[in-house]
Design goal:
The chain is of the alpha+beta class and 323 residues long. Helix content is 32%, strand content 27%. It is globular and about 65 Å long. The structure holds zinc ion.
């Protein structure tokens, strides 16, 4: 399998002059990519400038950032031509890699805008190299700039940043340094949410598991789904007894803690997200935690309850004072 390390540059509405097109807030104006073989050695490069068709003025930030002139872009190819050429160049057996999760979303959104067939009919597995960098060298949570990572790894800065091809080139250099075992941390792009149960994602990683659901119309439908609200051990697949029942501090994230005799405490987290079609879907993560962490979640739940109680009392008081 090859790795397609790619980077896009995009333009946006220049406030006041051109109206923003809702279905295309960011118009891709450059594609740069590096193809690595299974040993993560560079075997090919792709670069294309794209002639703007929606936003003709270059946004001041874009202009400052990427040093591309309008005249240069006018000579570029159409998006549909460039994207088809790029996808042909990618070949058959590959996985996308990019610095952060945004490029893959914008690629699909631009393709959709021009009526191109979707890249996939379900979430796409890809490598977020910015995340891999954090897992390999930092704390898993921090997200650094590309240049920071290049400096951190003492990689020679032999070409300027912020052009699609150079950023792809540097991202590929960083990606090549990531230890093999860290590559189990694949990400999923959810521009296309599973349309049915069959296409749902269930992935097990080094120390947690992730489930991406099909679409739902509303929250009630989600919280009524027995499987989503279940607390199964992702290693031995048994239904576990909940030690802290589901609660939500904010209506978006839900937590619960269960206990497996064999594997210990397990934390479940549900995040309700909005899909591109304005429906809802669920990302549920399952992770083994220490007893201390389990206690901390219990405290969090009690805290949530307290706050709710206080708010309720305030409401009653406000009502009373209305009379
Ligand atoms: Zn278990």
């Amino acid at each position: 399998m090859n790795y397609i390390v790619f980077d896009l540059e995009w333009n946006q509405s220049n406030t006041g002059k051109e109206e923003e097109v809702n279905s295309l807030p960011f118009e891709i104006i450059e594609i740069g990519a590096v193809k690595l073989n299974s040993e993560r050695v560079k075997i090919s490069e792709y670069h294309q400038l794209i002639k703007p068709q929606v936003y003709h003025e270059l946004h001041h930030i874009t202009q400052k950032l990427i040093h591309v002139q309008k005249e240069e872009l006018e000579k570029g190819s159409s998006f549909v031509h460039a994207a088809s050429e790029f996808l042909d160049w990618c070949g058959e057996d590959y996985i996308f890699c990019s610095w952060g999760p945004l490029d893959l979303v914008e690629l699909q959104r631009n393709m959709k805008y021009y009526g191109m067939p979707p890249l996939n009919d379900r979430p796409i597995a890809f490598y977020d190299v910015q995340k891999l960098f954090s897992i390999a060298y930092e704390d898993r949570k921090s997200r650094r700039s590309l240049e920071y990572a290049i400096d951190f790894l003492n990689i020679e800065k032999d070409i300027p940043f912020h052009r699609a091809i150079s950023d792809a080139y540097y991202t590929a250099k960083i990606f090549a340094t990531i230890e093999e075992q860290v590559l189990s941390n694949v990400s999923y792009d959810t521009f296309v949410v599973p349309e049915n149960k069959k296409k749902e994602i269930f992935a097990v990683f080094d120390n947690y598991a992730k489930y991406i659901s099909r679409e739902f119309h509303d929250k009630t439908e989600i919280t009524a789904d027995r499987e989503i609200m279940s607390s199964k051990c992702y290693l031995c697949h048994r239904n576990l007894k909940k030690k802290v029942k589901w609660f939500t501090p904010n209506g978006k994230h839900y937590y619960c803690v269960a206990y497996c005799d064999k594997h210990g405490f397990m934390k479940f987290k549900i995040r309700i997200k909005k899909s591109e079609n304005s429906e809802l879907y669920v990302v549920k993560t399952m992770k083994y935690i220490s007893q201390e962490e389990a206690e901390a979640i219990k405290v969090k739940k009690e805290h949530t309850k307290e706050i709710r109680k206080i708010k309720k009392q305030q409401k009653i008081q406000n009502k009373d004072s209305d009379y």
